[in-house]
Structures are given as C-alpha cells and as structure tokens.
Amino acid sequence: MRPLTWWGLLRQGRFKIHPSRLPNLLGVSLATPWNTVLAGIQQLVFRNRLASAELHGPPVFIIGHWRSGTTLLHELLVLDERYSSPTTFQCFAPHHFLVTEWIFQKFFGWLIPGKRPMDNMAAGWERPQEDEFALMNLGLPSPYRHIAFPCEAPVDMNYLDFQDVSPSALRQWLDALRRFLLGVSTVTGRPLVIKSPTHTGRIAALAKEFPDARFIHVTRDPRALFPSTCRLWAGLAEAQGMQVARRPATAASTNSSGDGDGDDQPLSADKQYVVDCLRRMYDAFFRDRPTIDSNRIIDIRYEDLVDDPVTVLETIYRSLRLSDFDSVRPVIESWAASEHRSYQTNRHQLSPQDEATIRSAWKHYFENYGY
Description:
Elements: H1 3-12, H2 22-51, E1 60-63, H3 70-77, H4 88-92, H5 97-107, H6 131-137, H7 167-188, E2 193-195, H8 203-209, E3 214-219, H9 222-240, H10 269-288, E4 297-301, H11 302-307, H12 309-320, H13 329-337, H14 339-342, H15 352-361, H16 363-368
Parallel strand pairs: 1-2, 1-3, 3-4
Helix pairs in contact: 2-5, 9-10, 12-13
C-alpha cells in the first residue's frame, strides 16, 4: 500500500489497534513511503512498456466461494505453461513489481511461509495469487479490507455484487483491474488465469469488460464450506489483522449434542459474515449467470476435482475450448500420481444449529448444486 491508502484503511478501522499488533502497524507504516518511491521508479523505467501492454489472449476467471477448491484449480491450470497468473508478490506489491519482484524472489523468500496457514497448499512469492489483494493494495474498495479490522463492521460489501456502486466508481474499479492485468502480462506474455472468490458476484461486469473471457465456477458442499471459511477468516485476521478477533466457538461446542438447547441463539458476528457474503455473492451470480454464453462458463464440483483431476481438467478444456488438453495431459497426470496423493483436505465439524442456519440461508445453493 501507499501512504494515503494505508491512512484511509486505518481511519476506516477508527485506529482501533490492539497493542499486540503494534509491530504490524510499524512495519506497514515504514514500508508505505517506499512503495511510493518504487512506484515512481517503475513508472519512469517502464512507462513505454506499460503504455503498449496488451492482454495475450482472453483471461480465464476461476470463481466460487472461498474454500471451494478455487486455489487447487488455479494451481492445476497454471501447470500448463501456455497460461500464466498474477503471482503472490505481484498482488502484494502491485505498484512496483516490475522493479522489485526478482529481488524478493531471490533474497526474501524467507518472509513468506512455505504453507498457507489455513490449508495444506504451498505458498511463496512466485505462487499464483488472488488479484483481489492487488486491487485492495492499489486502494480500490474491497471486502478484504475487513481482514485488517475484523472486530469492526464489514466494509465494501457492495463490491461483492456491485449493487449501488455508481457507474463512475465501477469504471474506476474495472480500469484498475485492467491496468494491473496488463502490467502482469508484460512479464508473462501469456493468457492469464485469474482467481478471486470475490469475482463470483461480478460476472456480468467482468464478462462485459472482457468479452472473450471464460469462467470456471467451482462448488463445494456447503457443510464443508461454512466451517472452513470461518477458519479462513480467523486465520487471516490472526496473521494480518490490526486487532485481536474474538475466537469463535468451535462447531462442536455449539449445540453439538443436538438436544435442541440454544437453537434460537443468534449467530456470532464472524459466522454471520460468512452467511451474508455467500448469500450476497450468489444472489448476483444466479441472476447474471444466464446472461453469459454457455460456451464461456462451466460449473465443476470440488468433490469431482479432488477425486479425478485429470477428467475434470479435460472437461474444462473441451467445454471452454481453452486449448489442446492432450498437450498438458502428461503434466496433470504426473501431478495426480505424485503430489495429489499427499494432498489432504482439512476435516471440519458442523453443529446441528449451524447446519440448520446455512440450509435455510443458502437454500438456493444447496438446491442448485445438489448438496
């Protein structure tokens, strides 16, 4: 982030910073001026290159709720060397990655853990990453700003579906996304695979902005999505937040006996946030999906992807006419025969009360995808 973006985020959080997070505050505050300096250097050195940048083919958007398997699919698609993706460093340093990415990859790999804290997926500066982080760091409105101040009310929820976002603000957001993707394209020279769960409710705007784009929508049993997403937000708040979030009750501790006690108790704020996000995203998705040409969008199930990744990938390639799957088949089969054997899905428990809540609130998701 640059100083004004950082100041705006702190002000949005009403400067309510927990004493234990002061090192985080100091670290980011010291880095923001350098982001401005490095952004100026990048603009000076790469001005002509950025001005003539173009997308090398239509982007492929992976969408679906958090913890639905979008990261796994993202990692699999970029095994095909004909495609590329924004890296973690590019998304976390969108102002100056053309100048600094090689330095961090070479000398500062130790700054990022080898595994993501919420699951078993590998992490690293060079790994594929969500472009939503880049947009947030560029100063665009994003629901991810809530990660910094998890004890405050959620923010920018209208950017999950662009409802009540003015045409000028939407144009600004789309222009920033395009500029970022163009910058990434100057590095890769290949079509981009874009993955952000937040794009799920934005498909109408994205399809209009990128007329030849393809969309891969991933679904997963909501009874696994819900507890896994609660764990995700807790982990991100713990690692990156400026506040110490109240630890939610575990699924097993909330009416786990099924005796009916506490069935009328309201959801905690963190759980309500998860419920509201999916409902808002999928209200827009179900409304806008019929407007997307059937040759440009496909639904897949996480359960099928984990069970038979080769067949699912082949179906995606053929349905969306991405490219020749036979060329990449050996790579996917090799992954499935080696790394896939060690891939383990986290197991989560869901209380009867929570299951009843999401079956009601997410009724259309359950019904549309047969869960």
